[in-house]
Amino acid sequence: MNKFIFDIVLESADICNLVADAAKLTDMVDRGSRIVFTGRRNMGKTSLVMAKVIPSYRARHAEGLVVVVDLMGVRSLGQISRRLQLAFERGMSLVHPTRTYLQKMANTLRQIRPTMSIDALTGAPEFSLGLASDGESIDFSAIIAQIGVFHREHAALLVMDEFQDIAEIPEAEALFRAALQYLPSDMPVLIMGSKKHILANIFAAPGAPLAGWGQQIEIATITVADYVPYINDRLKSVGAYVDQNVTAELLKQMSNNPEAINIIGDWWQRHRTGAGLLTGNDIYLAIAGVVRERSSLYGEYLSQFTAKEETVLIAIAQCQPLKAPQSADFRAKVRMSPGGLGPLTKRLENRAVVYRTEEGLIIADPLLAAWLRTR
């Protein structure tokens, strides 16, 4: 039985469409482009890159190095360096670097003692930079430079996810600019991020160290026509199916969020055996069922916010998309002044709790929004 998969990076067969995005990214990586790939969380960016773009790259570059680092939540330059070091070691374990390259790297980074070994339990190769006992963590700029050195001899791809989280770290943007600008011109670098407004400050704001860097791409929205066969393929084992009208309403209620749509599909798969054609009411039954299952978690999550933040979140959920958060009507609803409401909504946006779309502000997690509307 094909399941609705969520909470993990999807395999290729579990991704609904995004074929055009995969082809475009693959082509750009193949041409050695610098790419900034954006879209709010749970839209499928990471799954698309991990399941389609990277395997395609590895198929073309059997000896190529792929370094994938997740920068979510980094708070210091040292954390960036540590995460990039671990990602570099994982990537190198797959390519079995030559003894000549290891020696060359050791000569360049004198505090390291790079080694290749075999894990006694799994038999898998392991690579370690083997920091000398008196050595500190390696500066991430030096690791990026080593990826460039490897690319000149073989091939390399650098992928950095949730890149916008470096924005609050002093000097991080300038140091990344210095490191990235010295990479070989034909080496692909793929940066991903979910907070579009922060990424705009990093890559578009005049005077920012990385202003103008890379080509900007936003992940496509998956359509109703895409989802009907995808959902029905997974529901057929329980004797249920959807049509275009029901699917359109589902996408509307879930803000076109693939993760949330799969969670609803999973609920149907568990509860609607033999239901035949599902209706709009089945959507609301599923949303209510999922919200009940997650209620205690959402309640604990909401306890992390102030009373004012909670009031604003509930109000946004009730009227999203919120076109004019500073309107007199909305301020009256939440009983806040413009001077207090503006910074508060910005904090919520920076924490990725709310997201700004072309239609207005929405709660980033549509199931959280549904729960908030019950408050």
Q: N- to C-terminal separation?
A: 36 Å
Q: Tally of extended strands? A: 11
Main sheet attributes: strand count, strand direction, barrel closure: 5 strands, parallel
Identify the quaternary structure here.
single chain
Q: What's the structural domain tally?
A: 2
CATH fold title of the largest domain: Rossmann fold
Rg, nearest Å: 23 Å
> Order of helices and strands, N to C?
HEHEHHEEHEHEHEHEHHEHHHHEEH
Number of helices, counting only DSSP H or I runs of 4 residues or more = 15
Strand and helix layout:
Blueprint: H1 19-30, E1 34-38, H2 45-60, E2 65-70, H3 77-95, H4 99-108, E3 115-118, E4 125-128, H5 140-153, E5 156-161, H6 172-180, E6 189-193, H7 196-203, E7 215-218, H8 224-235, E8 240-241, H9 244-253, H10 258-271, E9 276-277, H11 280-302, H12 307-319, H13 328-334, H14 338-350, E10 354-356, E11 361-363, H15 366-372
Parallel strand pairs: 1-6, 1-7, 2-5, 5-6, 8-9
Antiparallel strand pairs: 3-4, 10-11
Structure description:
- This protein has 375 residues and is of the alpha/beta class.
- It has two domains: 18-218, Rossmann fold (3-Layer(aba) Sandwich); 224-372, no CATH class.
- The protein has 15 helices and eleven strands.
- It has helices at 19-30, 45-60, 77-95, 99-108, 140-153, 172-180, 196-203, 224-235, 244-253, 258-271, 280-302, 307-319, 328-334, 338-350, 366-372; strands at residues 34-38, 65-70, 115-118, 125-128, 156-161, 189-193, 215-218, 240-241, 276-277, 354-356, 361-363.
- The strands form four sheets. Strands 2-5-6-1-7 form a five-stranded parallel sheet, sandwiched between helices. The protein has a two-stranded antiparallel sheet with strand order 3-4.
- β10 and β11 form a beta hairpin.
- The longest helix has 23 residues, at 280-302.
- The radius of gyration is 23 Å and the shape is globular.
- The model has no long low-confidence stretch (mean pLDDT 93).
